Amino acid sequence: MRRPTTLIILLCLRLTSPTSLTLTEAFLSGRSVVGGAAQITKSLSQLSSQSNPTTEGVLDLCVIGGGVSGLVAAITAAETSSKTRQSSSHPLSILLLETSDALGGRIRTDTSDGYILDRGFAVFVEDYPTSRRLLDYDALDLRQFSPGAMVKLFGHDGFLTKVSDPRRRHQDALMTLFSPVCGILDKLRLLPLFITVLTKSVDELFTMTETDAYSCLRSTYGFSDDFINTFFAPFLEGIYLTPLHYQSSRMLHFILKMFAGGNASLPRGGMRAVVDQLSDRAVGLSVNIQYESRVVKIKEVPLTSGCDGQAGQYSVEVESRSNGIQIIQARTIVVATDVDAAQSLLVDLRTIETSLSEELPPQRSVGCIYYAFQSPAPVIDPILILNGEGGRDTTRRNTKDYPINNVCFPSRVVEGYAPNGYELCSVVILENALAEHGNDNNSLDKAVRIQLATWFPDLSSDIIDETKWIRKEMYVMKNAQPANYHRGRDGCANVNGGRDCLTFRGESLPAGIFVCGDHMATATLNGALESGVNAGHAVVRVVSSTAIVELTSSYNIKA
Ligand SMILES: Cc1cc2nc3c(=O)[nH]c(=O)nc-3n(C[C@H](O)[C@H](O)[C@H](O)COP(=O)(O)OP(=O)(O)OC[C@H]3O[C@@H](n4cnc5c(N)ncnc54)[C@H](O)[C@@H]3O)c2cc1C
Prior knowledge:
Bound molecules: flavin-adenine dinucleotide
Strand content: 15-25%
CATH topology of the largest domain: Polyamine Oxidase, Chain A, domain 2
Distance between the termini: 49 Å
Number of strands: 22
């Protein structure tokens, strides 16, 4: 609800008078991450009451959205500008606006009674190139999954078969060779697939002809439908949240390369450790963060004499719980929201208002149920477990009675995910199965328990008993991921390195407006990070008019 008072806040940032300097200091002193909403709101209010509302003053950069892409855009802009500007000039003034009460966007983690609950099951893929450059892996204290996966096959109740990578786990070579997950021909067909992903660079994989993932597996590599449905479908659908016909062959090759070359892991403190690391870094660079502040409109305003003509000038209308409506002015804007929110903010801009009428490819939803129970876990190995029951009978996966796509016991990967003596089970449910249960969480929970009980018959009575396997939380994430292939339509998230951040869905944006987010690159954490880097560099190019030097090394925390 909008409050009746409209607060006009003009921030003076390229200031020369002593009074202005005091105002800038007041602004900068309000930064904080935890409880930042209250603190920064206070300093913004102080500013507005002290300054003449008609005084010209604009931020260098306003970032809309505090997911990982927005944080990285802010960090990159701040770090790059500090390297390229003269020592006498001011650091960039950067404000990041986040609509919710915390940073992270789609990467959030809750804690409850000693359990760590990522909002939706996620894994940290260590080989993502931009993650490696940007993040301090030692500080994340990563704990690895076992390579490969266990598969629950149709008709094999109480038995899981292992599919492993013999290069990385020699001890599993025989088990994998004789696994009933597929016949010898399919096993042999894995060879050319793995040669492709291991010998080609990421860049090369993204230049290969693109088809949907099913056609690629079936026609290019010749895998049987049975093996595709038993293994590839639950594995890849658990990652890209959509049937193989709606996945890109580029994304298939990319993710297989990431898994074949490196580890999947979880940070010791849960996935939020990634966000905490980035937000600490942003705050250290004087990025101001304002929470519970939803941007409702971006408007172009006529350029003032104070501007150097390279950026635009924009007013950003922000609805904030504590301050009602604020108007913030900025020379550059990075829209770092999910694709739907980006579209609705950008469509209002004069220059592109007529061009974005075509419907967006649908984003994908996913559900995750967490169960807490007393040790031991039915599977001790820290490994992903796939529902391969849909091999011959495709009604046994992602349906009303068989809703499970994949299962994991995160407490086997990182002990701290559950208190001593207890375990945590996470069950992933894809959108078909979610839809079949409507909003009836109890009906979904019941179907999951019945299916799980057949997987682990020794524990079946505990699994069915709601006082023994306690449902800790059920998350349903709408807009969990942008489409990565949609019958060849443009605008899908399958672009290595990120697409041009000066355009949105092929339309040029007004000067000074940039877009980032996973929908601008690949539908992954890596894509979100790399698009944030691109947008941060673009901002500095505009704001400082200084040639960008290649600063890759400055992101490399580890030597
Ligand atoms: C359950 C789940 C599991 C996943 N698992 C994996 C995985 O294992 N591996 C992997 O690589 N990727 C995974 N992903 C994908 C990955 O998390 C995302 O690609 C990435 O986090 C996207 O980051 P982003 O910054 O682009 O967008 P977001 O995280 O969506 O950030 C956008 C931010 O903008 C804010 N915002 C929106 N509108 C406004 C507005 N009007 N004003 C102000 N703020 C606004 C939002 O609140 C949000 O904080 C998973 C995603 C989900 C949901």
